[in-house]
C-alpha cells in the first residue's frame, strides 16, 4: 500500500475490493443445471437431422450451423452478412435461398421444442 500513500497522501484511505469473478456457466445455471440458452432441449426433426442430434442447447446448435456455413463456404463473398443456402440449409431456413446472418437465430428458434 506504499503506492497508495504516494498517490493519495498520508491522510487518505484506499478502499479496494476484490473483483467479482463469474463465468457464463455459473451465472446461467440454477442449482448446477444449465438454464436459458445453455439448456439442452429437444429439437424439430428437420434440425435434428441437420445436426444429427435429437436434443441440443441453442448455443451449440447455432455454433454447429455456423461451422457448416464456414466449412462449405456459404457466405456471400461480396456481402459477408448474407448466407447463400444450399439444399441442406434450406431444410432449416424455410426453403429460403438467402438468409441474413441476423435472421439465423429467429429462423432457428422455431426448431426448439418448448417444454411445458
UniProtKB/TrEMBL annotation:
<protein>
    <recommendedName>
        <fullName>DM2 domain-containing protein</fullName>
    </recommendedName>
</protein>
<dbReference type="InterPro" id="IPR036885">
    <property type="entry name" value="SWIB_MDM2_dom_sf"/>
</dbReference>
<dbReference type="InterPro" id="IPR003121">
    <property type="entry name" value="SWIB_MDM2_domain"/>
</dbReference>
<dbReference type="Pfam" id="PF02201">
    <property type="entry name" value="SWIB"/>
</dbReference>
<feature type="domain" description="DM2">
    <location>
        <begin position="36"/>
        <end position="114"/>
    </location>
</feature>
<dbReference type="InterPro" id="IPR019835">
    <property type="entry name" value="SWIB_domain"/>
</dbReference>
Amino acid at each position: 500500500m506504499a503506492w497508495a500513500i504516494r498517490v493519495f497522501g498520508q491522510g487518505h484511505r484506499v478502499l479496494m475490493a476484490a473483483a467479482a469473478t463469474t463465468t457464463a456457466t455459473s451465472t446461467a445455471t440454477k442449482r448446477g443445471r444449465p438454464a436459458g440458452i445453455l439448456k439442452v432441449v429437444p429439437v424439430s426433426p428437420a434440425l435434428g437431422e441437420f445436426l444429427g442430434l435429437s436434443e441440443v442447447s441453442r448455443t451449440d446448435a447455432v455454433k454447429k450451423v455456423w461451422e457448416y456455413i464456414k466449412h462449405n463456404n456459404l457466405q456471400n463473398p461480396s456481402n459477408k452478412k448474407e448466407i447463400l443456402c444450399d439444399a441442406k440449409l434450406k431444410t432449416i431456413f424455410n426453403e429460403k435461398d438467402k438468409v441474413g446472418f441476423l435472421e439465423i437465430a429467429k429462423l432457428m428458434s422455431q426448431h426448439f421444442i418448448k417444454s411445458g
